[in-house]
Specification:
Radius of gyration: 21 Å
Helix content: 40-55%
Largest sheet: 5 strands, mixed
Number of domains: 2
Shape: globular
Structural class: alpha/beta
Length: 346
Amino acid sequence: MDDLTTGYPVPARPIMRFRWHAGDWFEIFERHVALIQSDIARAQAEDRIVVYLSCPISSRGGGHFGTNIEIANFVARRLASQWGERFFVVNPAAYQLESKEGTGLIVRHIADLARETGRELTLDGLRAQAEPGGGDYMRMWTRVLVEDGYLADPPGRSRSGRHLGGLFDAYYFLGPDDMHEFFGAGGRTSGGRTGGGSADGGTLASKVEEYFARKYAIDPEFFVSFAAGPDSDGATRLLDLTNPSDARLWEARRKEFVRYYTVRAGAAYSLGSHDEWNLMARLNRARVADPAYGPGEQIAAYFAAGPCGLAEAEAETSIGYEVAAVPVSPNGMPATAGQRAAEVDA
């Protein structure tokens, strides 16, 4: 049974609202926030520069969650290699249920909660009652990205507890170049952007199709995602590719996969990344106006290996999972975060 509540993840800095599950899932995500913040606190103690990696994770839009996890891990490793060990990359893929690492951590929280409350709790049982959604994760990540009560103040500045994301120095938004490089298509130029072909001459489309064929053949989870469908009674069955209807469904899924990772790849097509971009923009505007920060102390923004322009890191885009006060703008398009803020101020 869904028990949902709507509110601000950080009441002391009420700049973004979400809808999330209450009850056991709320308690589990609270523990997860504490774990992630402990990882960041350790990086701070080691005097490392903290970067948040904003990336697609779910299978929305034709992508595949397993592939997105692989790409996020690939980019996190590349950043660590290119930028150096002084940088600490917070990779959401390592903490969410879509990955084995994230599942393992959440299962540990569930076991702790079961032991403390004397109840029998399991991941499967909790998911049968309610599946965590984008609002649950964005409440968690908003707390991680905004709260800074454990920040070690720099000399002469009192920033701890202002909740302006003081632990984070930069956000890196995963772009199509990053995804294309993962598939082996395109080489990075001196400016950070990718070229048009791979070292062995293969095209982007051929590289993505080769990846699809390989994963389809050897990865059972990937195989089921594309080769299974609902039966007449609602049960899951394997598609019969000799059946024209099933064959069309399979081909449509494969085409969506190729289209997503060739032309729709990147954070621009992630609802969570939209919210994270808007969160960064609002924090940056607040930092400029705050005497403990001021101009020149904004969070740096990177997209697809390149730094964003002067105005980009303070401009907003359409919302993702955020609960907007203005659900639709006057022109019928989804409300921008700026329109939402204007309505709230009014």
